[in-house]
Structure formats: C-alpha cells, structure tokens
Design brief:
It is a single chain. The longest helix is centred in the middle third of the chain and has 14 residues. The protein is of the alpha+beta class and 622 residues long. Strands 22, 25, 27, 28, 29, 30 and 32 form a 7-stranded antiparallel sheet that branches. Strands 21, 23, 24, 26, 31 and 33 form a 6-stranded antiparallel sheet that branches. It has a 4-stranded mixed sheet with strand order 2-1-8-7. The protein folds into 3 domains: 127 residues, FAS1 domain, CATH 2.30.180.10; 149 residues, no CATH class; 241 residues, Jelly Rolls.
Length: 622
C-alpha cells in the first residue's frame, strides 16, 4: 500500500495521521486551451482507446460496459493509470470481477465530475471521486501516485485526462466493510440482521402521480442500519468524517457475550415495592409490600438483545475528538480516556491498543480488530448505581417529616477540615467528590420538622438501574458539623432494610448485612445497647450500625447479589421497576435527654451500589 486515502501516510506500525480537508465543486466545465492537441474534439473513450499506454483501461471499460459513460456528454476528469501501473495480478483480479465491481472500484475510483486541470497555481486539495472517496490532488500526484511525463491536461470533448504511475487502491467505508469481514462473523451477522433498505428520495428521479401516489422514473434504493445509527450513534458511510471502529473477532465476541449475558437475567413478570405508594412505618418494623405488576418484554430475547447491544455500542470513535488521537497514532497519552460516538468516556485507550490484532484502512477511517472486549464492566454493561434523593422521608406514628432540604456546602468552606472525611474509602472518593464539583452535597430533613419532636425520620431510596449482579452497598451519612461546626457531636444509630425481587417474582425483605457481622467493616451490634460487642451469629432483626460521631460515615453494608435484572426490564419506560433501600433509626427520641444522646436529624449524602469487580480492582491497585 503506497498511500492512504484521506487519512494520510501509513506508518510502519500500521497507524494513521490526520485527514485532509474536502474540496468543493467550483471548477469550470471547460477543457484547457491547447491549440496543438489533435484530440480535443474526441471523447474520453475515443482518446483512451487510441492510447497505447492505456490498453488495460480500454479492456476494463469494454468488459464493464463503461464505454457509454466515457462517450457521454457529461464532463469528467479521468486519472488514468498506465498499463505499467497495473501488476498482472491486479489486472486479472479486476477483469475477473463483475461489471458493477469494476465500475465502482476502478472507474469511479479514478474519475470526478468537472474539470481539474494541473497548473503552477494549483494548491494541494482533496478530490471527491464518483464513488464519493476522497483523494489528495497536488501539482505532482493524485492519491500519492505521480503523473507520467507528458501525460497531464490531455483534453477531450467531454473531459480531461491525467496519466498516473499507479492504481489508486479502493477502500470500503466502514459500513461497506462490515459485509466483507472475515473471522468476525458474529459481529457481522448481528449488524447485518439490522440492515434495512429505503428509497433515497434525493437520488431518485420523480415521475408522475398515479392514483394519488408518487411514482419514480428511477428509484434508487439504499441501505441503512438501525444498530449503527441508534446504538453506535455513528454515520459509518460518511466519507467526510474519520472514525476508528473496533471490531471484535469471534473469540472476543463469544467471551464478551458470555460475560455480559448473566447480568441481564430477566423474568417474565416483575413485581416490586413501589415507594410512591408507601405509608408511614410503625416503630421499626419491616416495611409493607406494595406490588406493582411490571410486564417485561420476552425475557430471553431481551437478555440476548441487550448483551449484544453492550458489546457494540462503544465501538466507534471520531477523530475529531482530541481524546481519540491516541487510537489513530497508537501512542497512549497520560490520559487513557477515549470518547465514543455514544458520548461515553472510558479509560480504555491502552486496553484497546493491547488487544488490537489487526489494523485495516478504510476510506473514512480505520478498523482495529480486537481479540478481547476492551472496556471494564463499570464503564459499560455494569455501572456504579448511585441514588442521592430519597423517594420519601417518613416519621413513626404518623409524625411526618416529609420536607427535605438539599444542602450544598462549598468545598472552600471545608478547607482544612480533612478529619471530617477521614472515613471515606478510596473506592468512593471520586463519586463523593467529582473532579469538577465545587460543592459537597447531601439531603437532610428540614430541621423545622423535627425541633422538639419525637419523630424518627426514615429515608427510602429507589435503586434504579440495578442488574442481576453482585454489588457492595454503601450508605454515606453526614454529621451536623459539616454544616454547623460548633454543634454537639452525636452518633447515628441506624438499621437498613433492602427490598428486592427473587427469581420467582416474590418480593423479599432483608436487613443488611446478610451473614455474620464480623465479615463487614463497619461496626454492627446485636441488640439495642450501644456498648454490646458484635455477635458471631447475630439475630438479623436486631442488627444496627453505630456511626463514628462527628465524621462523614460510610456504612459498608457488605456484598449483595440481586437475582434479577431491573434495568430496562419494565415495558413502562416512564415508571421503571427497582429494588429499594430503607434507612431508619434504632433509637427513640421521646425526651430531650434521648435526643441529646444520638443524632435525630437524617443527613444522607447518597447510597452507592458498587459492582464487585470495581471494588476488587480498587483493592488490587492499593
């Protein structure tokens, strides 16, 4: 391969440079004046058929029935490879092809509408040929191939000929290439299954109306693909853009599918506790069930479809994003982040390069064939679940504390008070303190609802987007000192209930953590006395957590595996199903003394469901 159309020169490592700009069609449809030329009154066909250097082109035109076009009144510029520019193998490959292939890959590859003369004033530009491919055009060459001495600006009555010393190599665009993939059959079949034909109104020639319906003298049908446009959010036919597309080989596809599929275990019907229908809970008892039938789409078909969607959706990257230059140069920068056409940023540039087994040039970019899915679960099919706004805040014995306040504390106000946050583990820091945030935010019960009150607020969180995965569950509570530094230091005493649906569509309730108290990092106790020691086998109905007074506490509720997938399960997209977490006090506040001993006001920064793979990854890197 001598030159890369549009993108640039192929580096020895198989990498690419930036794209050339596009040209317009402002050229004149006139032949350069040449009073000495005896061929100016002859057509392109008549000229090349009499040229001893172009006998191969003549044979190709006759084989493909292209003579009529070369004789037509329409004006073209032809970059004509000389006979010496063809190897015998290249020539025979073309001659053995069907007419459509010869026309699209050879003649349309070397011809453009209008007049493109070569002169001393010609600036380097880009030519769009009849097959919509882009080619660099300079005073010295076309698509990197030099002009033959005495072979430029050869006039004809319907065009212009420039002879070149090589044959421009045809490249499929990224969409066309899918039909020709080898060793990536599962990817190809999935994409092709979503191809659909449509009538191109702009290219078709309108005919008369018949019986009120529009007819066409020439109907031009084209193909489009809903997965590419809707899932990948890319136009892979666009010759004016440059993309890097990842293509998993069959080994990578199978491994990714088998990994993703179990995270989307759907059941034919899904009931759940709907927090919008929940009433006040009496004195620390388990919550009541409020069922709302949710019919999911056919479970196995949905599971299969979503597993395949997650394999392909982040596989296209535009060169226009500065994040993605490392995929085109093959050199990873300090920032490993890439930015897909689905507008997702993932730290996966090095992983993509490490798993690239082949690079192929396309007319509008490049493909990287990969032998392994390059994205982490938490960056793709199994993200971190964060819930920061309670669905309700209720008090016992119908003492409502439903008014909530969103509190935003400027980080500048917390400068020098690092001890407040000493309990936050590394696995949560980037979520609690996002890179570009200027505030520490949390939700609190409006204090006016609790002054001198006996109410014990309860927060209930809808955990939307949960997969049938194993998560580590964390709840982050906030002490009053974050907002009021001089307030009295008091601990939280809390209990946590999880409502979820099992594989038989039965709503279950459990107090977290599940299992022995000693397996969890935060202090848990068996019984109602704050000073008692954690039990080896506690009575789960009496487990409570004691927060560290005066600290932002991270209550680690341990690992939990959800039996079914909620994400995208509901046929009602506006009201999706979800499991829920209830947070309630274990202490009573019936006197000033009791209110003075423990924290009554509920302040919660958020509830986090962190995929086990992410927790393990952070632990391994420490």
């Amino acid at each position: 391969m001598k030159y890369i159309n549009k993108i640039g020169v192929m580096l020895s490592a198989g990498l690419m440079l930036a794209a050339a700009s596009c040209t317009d069609y402002s050229d004149y449809n006139t032949v350069p004046e040449d009073g000495n030329s005896p061929f100016a009154d002859k057509t392109l066909w008549e000229n090349i058929s009499q040229d001893k250097q172009l006998t191969k082109i003549v044979s190709l035109a006759e084989k493909s029935n292209f003579v009529k076009t070369l004789n037509s009144a329409r004006f073209y510029t032809l970059w004509a490879p000389s006979d010496d520019a063809f190897s015998d193998e290249e020539y025979q490959d073309l001659m053995s092809s069907d007419s459509a292939t010869i026309v699209s890959r050879f003649f349309y590859q070397h011809m453009a509408e209008f007049n493109y003369p070569i002169s001393a004033s010609l600036d380097s530009t880009t030519i769009v040929t009849l097959n919509m491919k882009h080619h660099p055009f300079t005073q010295q060459s076309f698509d990197g191939y030099n002009y033959i001495a005495g072979g430029i600006n050869l006039p004809a009555s319907n065009g212009l000929i420039h002879k070149i010393d090589g044959m421009s190599e045809f490249h499929f665009n990224l969409y066309e290439n899918i039909d020709h993939l080898e060793g990536c059959d599962q990817f190809k079949e999935y994409i092709q299954a979503n191809d659909e034909e449509y009538l191109d109104l702009n290219a078709s020639i309108v005919g008369p109306l018949k019986e009120g319906k529009q007819t066409y003298l020439d109907s031009v049908m084209k193909k489009r693909n809903t997965v590419i446009t809707r899932v990948m959010n890319a136009n892979l036919e666009d010759e004016d853009s440059t993309f890097c597309m990842l293509i998993p080989n069959d080994e990578a596809w199978t491994k990714a599918y088998d990994t993703i599929y179990p995270h989307y275990n759907y059941i034919p019907k899904l009931d759940y506790m709907d927090l919008t229908k929940k009433t006040a809970i009496a004195d620390q008892v388990e919550p009541k069930n409020f069922k709302a039938d949710k019919t999911v789409q056919p479970a196995e078909n949905l599971q299969d479809s979503i597993a395949k969607r997650y394999i392909v959706e982040k596989m296209v990257f535009s060169q226009s994003s500065p994040y993605n230059q490392q995929l085109f140069t093959g050199v990873v920068s300090d920032n490993d982040t890439v930015y897909s056409t689905t507008k997702d940023k993932t730290a996966s540039a090095q992983s993509i390069l490490d798993h690239t087994v082949a690079i192929n040039e396309m007319s509008n970019g490049m493909t990287r064939t990969i032998d392994e899915y390059p994205f982490t679960p938490w960056d793709s099919y199994n993200p971190v679940i964060v819930s920061r706004t309670p669905a309700a805040a209720l008090g016992v014995k119908n003492n409502k504390a439903e008014s909530l306040t969103d509190v935003n504390i400027p980080l500048t106000d917390l400068a020098g008070r690092d001890s407040l946050f000493s309990k936050i583990p590394d696995v949560l820091k980037k979520f609690i303190f996002p890179q570009y945030s200027r505030f520490f935010s949390f939700t609190a019960v409006d204090s006016t609802n609790l002054n001198n009150s006996t109410a014990s607020p309860e927060f209930d969180y809808a955990l939307r987007g949960v997969r049938s995965s194993t998560y580590r569950i964390y709840v982050v509570t906030v002490p009053s000192q974050v907002e009021y530094p001089d307030s009295k230091v008091k601990p939280y005493y809390l209990r946590f209930w999880l409502s979820y649906t099992d594989a038989n569509n039965a709503i279950q309730k459990t107090i977290l953590p599940v299992g022995k108290a000693k397996t969890y990092e935060m202090t848990t106790a068996d019984g109602e006395n704050p000073g008692s020691s954690p039990s080896e086998t506690p009575t789960t109905s009496k487990i409570w957590y004691e927060g560290d007074p005066g600290k932002v506490n991270v209550f680690d509720l341990g690992e939990f595996t959800f039996p079914v997938c909620y994400d995208e399960a509901s046929s009602d997209r506006k009201n999706p199903a979800y499991p829920s977490l209830m947070i309630a006090h274990t202490k009573k506040f019936t006197s000033n003394k009791l209110r003075d001993q423990s924290e009554q006001y509920m302040r919660i920064e958020g509830v986090y469901l962190i995929p086990k793979e992410y927790v393990d990854s952070v632990s391994d890197n420490q």
